[in-house]
């Protein structure tokens, strides 16, 4: 049964990537726009195309605040965010289009810097920006600069990602340390009397995805980049879609000391903190070791790890501590960090 | 030689679709992001794709104010604007993705109405919305609701659009009356003590484009939907790209009386007023009559007309009056009507 969307107005939490975002999508957007492709709610839509087979297509808007931060900027995010949504759908990113919503009065130097950042990220990812659009709104009607990118990708033959294909015993692989992006943005806002030597992990994950596909192809059940809402939101979505419980071993989670420290001080669960250069893969047990080895051999994959597994049980995310106790971690509730991407 | 972008900040005129927009693109955006596809500056990018041939891809952001107006709304525009950019590139629109930037505090009823408008436009155009994204920014950091749509299209075999293929003697075909959208928005703002029985022409032009392609295919040199900046900006771009002069016969231009009257009162040149459901085609002379006949047979094409022709001469748009005098009409300068789409 479809629940009705009961909020009378839109709140920041509806952009969090957590439960409120999911309600907005499932209870308001899907009932209007539903079709067999959209309702899959995957990172990219796989669209039948001519005699060609399939095109992966995706779009994201970026409203991060502040515009620049250690390790990246809104332009870097806009390119890599869409590249990564294609990558974790098992599609080679082919091209991007990009739109700018500019606030009148925006210094040209700010826009120039973001165009340079986009050009650099586009070159680094090997994905050209082939078109776009620019709109300008009055001063006070936007917040400097919003960027939207859409992208097309070529689905890789032999890869068939579907949470429903998961089986008990499948392994959960994470590409590297979590929480870097979210904590970096929080610190960049300057509202906290705290400094840490930390930078956003914003980058293309395609080289790592390409490696795991080469190693494990049809043995990969599902992939996702845990951005807004963090690892916990992504794995709760997987649990819900697959019907399985996901169990993580807390001591196996790669987390930098600075991120762990900041989370403790701020009372944040690192499992809810956003990432922009990591991805999760659920892989059949027989292929997990070679998938991990392939990822570790890539430039940014050295810290990749098997962090848990898929188990029979009510769909949820269970985290087991080093002491053997366990806790259930839900999707992000509320708006932990608005405008994180 | 590349001119340098000399504005120190972004102004509303940079979103007008006229000369300032063109400067922003040519002098700031292209130098950063240039590649062989982007620099064509066509409505959609034609991207080589796998063994499949080519995918047409495009994106537009919509910031129209007010959100709703006679004949449409931001949701209607967002769907049809992208469908039309694909259509006038000679590509059958296949699917859209859509992102929403919402201001916290936006009434759910407003969003609900726009989702309904998008669903209706998507069904009318026969193009599903297959994916997307939602972001929320703080109250005061946006203006209710911005929508970005991107789309993919299947290029129709035998159609090869390139302004540089134009020849002297080619005919200029316009699909129907101009200025309806721009004047509707202006009236909807309620700043003028004027009423008129006029509605936006916002709709998919694909049925008309499909008809002209079936009739004239390889004889079509160029197409464009004259949105922001109007007919004059679109034809000046064609003139510049083709190296030819375009001559229009003013008395052949379909313009509704209400639009003509409003333009006279307001001192606007209807050639600069935005359209959302019309397109221009440059067609070889031998195919023009059957192209026109095919367009007129479609539901919204009854007023289609041959309005002028391509001539040798310095690249410009020349408009000849019924009395035989003529004037050169440039691209739109300044920001005649900010946030028209």
Compact overview of the structure:
Chain A is an alpha+beta fold and 341 residues long. The first copy, chain A, has helices at 19-33, 74-87, 108-125, 180-188, 206-216, 230-242, 257-266, 285-296; strands spanning 45-49, 53-62, 68-69, 72-73, 91-103, 129-137, 145-155, 171-174, 220-224, 245-249, 280-283, 305-311, 317-320, 326-328.
Oligomerization state of this entry?
Answer: homodimer
Kindly name the structural category of chain A: alpha+beta
Number of separate strands of chain A: 14
What is the number of helical segments of chain A per DSSP (H or I, 4+ residues)? 8
Q: Biggest β-sheet of chain A, characterized?
A: 7 strands, mixed
Envelope shape of chain A:
globular
Question: What value does the Rg of chain A take, in angstroms?
Answer: 19 Å
> Uncertain segments of chain A of ≥5 residues (pLDDT<50)?
none
Helix content of chain A: 25-40%
Q: Element order, helices and strands of chain A?
A: HEEEEHEHEEEHHEHEHEHEEE
Strand order of the largest sheet of chain A: 9-11-8-12-10-13-14
Verbal overview:
2 copies of one chain form a homodimer. The first copy, chain A, is of the alpha+beta class. The mean pLDDT of chain A is 95. The first copy, chain A, has 8 helices and 14 strands. Chain A is globular, with a radius of gyration of 19 Å. In chain A, strand 1 and strand 2 (53-62) form a beta hairpin. Chains A and B meet through helix 1, strand 1, strand 2, strand 5 and helix 3 of A and helix 1, strand 1, strand 2, strand 5 and helix 3 of B.
């Amino acid at each position: 049964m479809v629940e009705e969307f009961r909020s009378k107005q839109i709140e920041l939490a509806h952009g969090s990537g957590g439960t409120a975002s999911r309600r907005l999508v499932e209870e308001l957007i899907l009932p209007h726009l539903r079709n067999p492709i959209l309702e899959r709610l995957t990172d990219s839509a796989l669209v039948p195309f001519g005699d060609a087979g399939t095109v992966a297509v995706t779009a994201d808007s970026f409203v991060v605040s502040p515009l620049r931060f250690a390790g990246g900027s809104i332009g870097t995010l806009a390119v890599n965010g869409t590249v990564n949504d294609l990558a974790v759908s098992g599609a080679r990113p082919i091209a991007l289009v990009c739109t700018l919503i500019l606030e009148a009065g925006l210094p040209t130097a700010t826009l120039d810097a973001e165009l340079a950042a986009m050009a650099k990220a586009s070159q680094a990812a090997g994905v050209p920006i082939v078109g776009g659009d620019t709109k300008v709104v009055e001063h006070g009607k936007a917040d400097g600069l919003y960027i939207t990118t859409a992208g097309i990708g070529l689905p890789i033959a032999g890869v068939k990602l579907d949470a429903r294909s998961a089986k008990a015993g499948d392994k959960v692989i994470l590409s590297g340390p979590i929480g870097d992006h979210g904590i970096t943005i929080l610190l960049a806002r300057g509202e906290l009397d705290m400094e840490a030597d930390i930078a956003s992990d914003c980058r293309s994950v395609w080289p790592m995805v390409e490696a795991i596909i080469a190693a494990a192809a049809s043995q990969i059940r599902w992939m996702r980049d845990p951005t807004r809402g963090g690892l916990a939101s992504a794995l709760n979505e997987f649990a819900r879609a697959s019907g399985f419980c996901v169990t993580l071993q807390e001591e196996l989670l790669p987390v930098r000391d600075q991120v762990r420290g900041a989370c403790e001080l701020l009372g944040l669960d690192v499992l809810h903190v956003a990432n922009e250069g990591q991805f999760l893969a659920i892989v059949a047990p027989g292929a997990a070791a070679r998938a991990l080895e392939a990822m570790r051999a890539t430039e940014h994959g050295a810290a990749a790890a098997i962090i848990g597994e898929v188990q029979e049980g009510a769909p949820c995310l269970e985290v087991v501590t080093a002491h053997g106790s366990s806790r259930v971690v839900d999707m992000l509730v509320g708006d932990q960090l608005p405008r994180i991407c």
